[in-house]
Amino acid sequence: MSDDAPATSAPAATDAPDDATLLQSLRKWLRGRRLRNGEDLRTSIAALIKEHEARGASVEASERALLRRILTLHDLTVADVMVPRADIVAVEERTSFDEVARVFAEEQHSRLPVYRRTLDDVTGMVHIKDVFAFTGNRATFRLSRVLRQVLFSAPSMRVLELLDQMRRTHIHMALIVDEFGGIDGLVTIENLVEEIVGDIEDEHDEEETPHMVEERRGVVLADARTSIEDFEKLYGRVVPEDSEDDIDTLGGLVSSIAGRVPARGELVKHPSGLEFEIVDADARRIRKLRVRNVPPRPAGGA
């Protein structure tokens, strides 16, 4: 395809060998191109998927899930993915070495916002490695000496724009400021990357087995990470076998039905008659669900 072809055109079948994966084809086609906007990217990826499948090439479930997340990013603002103000962990700029070290150890973050007097007066952020560089010389530690810059963003800023700004500035934390100048929330580059690739668990994250608890007849309290397969083993099918959606968990199922991440307290109804009450959630994910109208376990169910 020539360089002056419209950005929204699908790559020609000759752009990649038949056995190339969809992501390899996309990477080869996008190399060196400059798309005009996020809508160009959405249209181009959708056209590429159609072209890829028309050639008889299979699309891996992991590829499809990744590209679906990329397609939805165009519509997301930072307000959709930010950590809300109530959940921000920050330190005051006069905080001692021991106290800052304690907060890092307990919260297991690598960066913390630093403020003067109130959270609405953020002066920067501190990185864990800059703090522990003073381990042998705590008496000289001052937060003001190790402050790094943060970005400030309006809630309406697009996720892709902020991700690009973080990439260009090498500043990986942004504070979200409301129309009155107050701090509304916080976004890190990890938050944004997880919107594309899914949850990233590091070596400090504790492995917890998702579980379900029958609170009473017909009502089940479940971790949103509970697999659809595990739920269906106990209570019957909830996702049709011919469904094209790559839905693996109860949380993913509920978000798919709602078309977004529902808020805590919302009730989402499934076509089967099941009702999902959102017990715990934030702007990025559902954590816990209460499932109502659950049928009795079939004979032989675990």
Write structural notes for this entry:
The protein has three domains: about 15-75, no CATH class; about 80-195, Roll (CBS-domain), CATH 3.10.580; about 210-290, Uridine Diphospho-n-acetylenolpyruvylglucosamine Reductase, domain 3 (2-Layer Sandwich), CATH 3.30.465. A hairpin with a 5-residue loop joins strand 6 (about 175) and strand 7. The N and C termini lie far apart (about 55 Å). The protein is of the alpha+beta class. The strands form three sheets. The protein has a five-stranded antiparallel β-sheet with strand order 8-9-12-11-10, with helices on one face. It has helices at about 20-30, 40-55, 60-75, 80, 95-105, 130, 160-170, 190-195, 230-235, 250-260; strands spanning about 85, 90, 110-115, 120-125, 150-155, 175, 185-190, 210-215, 220-225, 265-270, 275-280, 285-290. The chain contains ten helices and twelve strands. It is about 30% helix and about 20% strand.
Which short descriptors sum up this protein?
disordered N terminus, Uridine Diphospho-n-acetylenolpyruvylglucosamine Reductase, domain 3, alpha+beta, 302 residues, 3 domains, 12 strands, CBS-domain, four-stranded mixed beta sheet
Describe the structure concisely.
The protein is of the alpha+beta class and 302 residues long. The chain contains ten helices and twelve strands. The radius of gyration is 23 Å and the shape is globular.
Return the string of H and E elements.
HHHHEEHEEHEHEEHEEHHEEE
* Uncertain spans: 1-20, 31-39, 203-207
Q: For the terminal residues, how far apart are their CA atoms?
A: 56 Å
SS class: alpha+beta
Overall geometry: globular
Regarding CATH, which class of the largest domain? Answer: Alpha Beta
The major sheet is characterized as:
5 strands, antiparallel
The CATH topology assignment of the largest domain is CBS-domain
Q: What portion of residues belong to β-strands?
A: 15-25%
Query: How many domains is the backbone divided into?
Result: 3
* Radius of gyration over C-alpha positions, nearest whole angstrom: 23 Å
Number of helices: 10
Average pLDDT level: 78
- CATH level-4 homologous superfamily of the largest domain: CBS-domain
Strand order of the largest sheet: 8-9-12-11-10
Number-wise, the strands total 12
Helix content: 25-40%
CATH hierarchy: architecture of the largest domain = Roll
